[in-house]
Design brief:
The chain is α+β, with helices and mostly antiparallel strands. The chain is about 15% helix and about 25% strand. The strands form five sheets. Strands 3, 4, 5, 6, 7, 14, 15, 16, 17, 18 and 20 form an eleven-stranded mixed β-sheet that branches. Strands 13-12-11-21 form a four-stranded antiparallel β-sheet, with no helix packed on it. It has a two-stranded antiparallel sheet with strand order 1-2. The radius of gyration is 45 Å and the shape is globular.
């Protein structure tokens, strides 16, 4: 009876456990044989999809920079920036004694005046507007007739002292009514400097930037300039001659220009130097235009035999550009009026755009003009081996 009851109770227990969700194996009898383990099969491995490289980000299109505006220079006719075109002209007196050579700044001047001074030694006055050289000098003293040329542009006039007559004129009209007086003796600290490589008085130097700043302080303004000469482009190459030269003889400096057809310039030489160069940048002095202007010079009567010149009025001139030299005239109606140049028929002379050198000479000064040729020069004899021989 008890055994039957146990069977019945065991069956009931199994039914109850099954109803409760229990696994029969969770109540395995102690003596039950171990069940065989079933290893679950591995899930198939899925290969990762290849990673797509990111597309490159397109570079932004750069904004094109505007082309700088160029306008003609009033002094040279060359295209320059708008800032350079309105820059107030600067006139600097330059030494021409042998110990002062080579000078600095001449290659970057717009116009260069070269005229006699006392003792037979000429002197330069270089006018700057298109470019401002880093070095200009040696700076020398003022003379009255140079003031008249500087006054044509209301220039800032840089000098180191001057003749009594020039200094008197500068005191009276150096406030801008004639020119702006930039005297080294008044503005030596900062605007000028003295270099150790040369002895006084041939050691005074300045720069274009310093003179421009000084001019602004003195009252000179940057404003549009009115051209007084007519400029044109270079003549075509096939219309330029081969060779040609100009020679101007001062007592202590002989100037020679030899025309260069390819560059359409007049490379310049001075006494003692086969090629005149600019000490500031080592460039050859080679203007586009050369004017020889004849004027009457007289001594002022002072003990240093200083000169005066009749440069208000008119006179003869030789005008050279594009390899050709013509007879012409000059005219200046007043101290502040521009010096104008005309051909033999009275028409305004047409300059080639670029630098102009004006050689002012006393009437009767030796000057020589050699015309170029329409045919190329004969080639120099060849040093090649004679025909029939074989060069090693």
């Amino acid at each position: 009876m008890r055994r039957s009851t146990g069977v019945v109770l065991g069956g009931i227990l199994l039914v109850v456990l099954g109803a409760c969700g229990a696994s029969p194996s969770s109540v395995a009898p102690a003596t039950a044989a171990p069940s065989t383990a079933i290893v679950p099969s591995a899930s198939p491995t899925v290969a990762p999809s290849p990673t797509q490289a990111p597309s490159p980000t397109p570079e932004p299109t750069p904004t094109p920079e505007p082309t700088p505006v160029k306008v003609p220079s009033a002094l040279t006719g060359l295209p320059v920036s708008e800032a350079a075109a309105i820059r107030h002209p600067i006139a600097v007196m330059l030494d021409d004694l042998r110990v002062a050579r080579p000078q600095s700044g001449l290659s970057q001047a717009s116009i260069v005046w070269h005229a006699p001074a006392e003792g037979g030694i000429p002197r330069y006055m270089a006018i700057f507007s298109d470019q401002l050289p880093k070095s200009i000098g040696p700076v020398r003293s003022a003379r009255v007739y140079y003031l008249s040329w500087a006054a044509e542009w209301d220039a800032v006039y840089a000098h180191s002292g001057g003749s009594p007559a020039a200094l008197k004129l500068l005191r009276e009209q150096g406030d801008g009514s004639l020119i702006f007086n930039a005297d080294e003796f008044a503005h030596g600290n900062g605007a000028f400097n003295r270099i150790a490589e040369r002895q006084a008085p041939h050691n005074v130097y300045t720069s274009g930037a310093r003179m421009h700043r000084l001019g602004i302080r003195l009252g000179a303004k940057d404003e549009p300039l009115t051209p007084v000469w007519t400029f044109a482009a270079d003549a075509p190459l096939d219309q330029r001659p081969y060779g040609g030269s100009i020679k101007v003889v001062y007592p202590y400096n002989t100037i020679t220009y030899r025309y260069d057809r390819d560059s359409n310039t007049y490379p310049r030489s001075v006494t003692g130097e086969k090629a005149q160069t600019d000490a500031g940048n080592d460039k050859r002095i080679a203007p586009k235009n050369v004017v020889v202007m004849y004027a009457q010079f007289t001594e002022t009567g002072d003990r240093k035999h200083r000169l005066d010149a009749d440069i208000v009025g008119s006179g003869k001139a030789k005008l050279s550009t594009n390899g050709l030299t013509i007879d012409g005239t000059w005219k200046k109606e007043s101290v502040k009026a521009p010096t104008l140049f005309f051909d033999a028929g009275g028409a305004p002379f047409v300059f080639t755009a670029g630098q102009t050198f004006i050689q002012v000479v006393d009437i009767g000064t030796p000057t020589t003009f050699k015309a170029g040729s329409d045919t190329p020069p004969t080639a120099a004899p060849s040093s090649a081996a004679p025909s029939g021989s074989v060069a090693p």
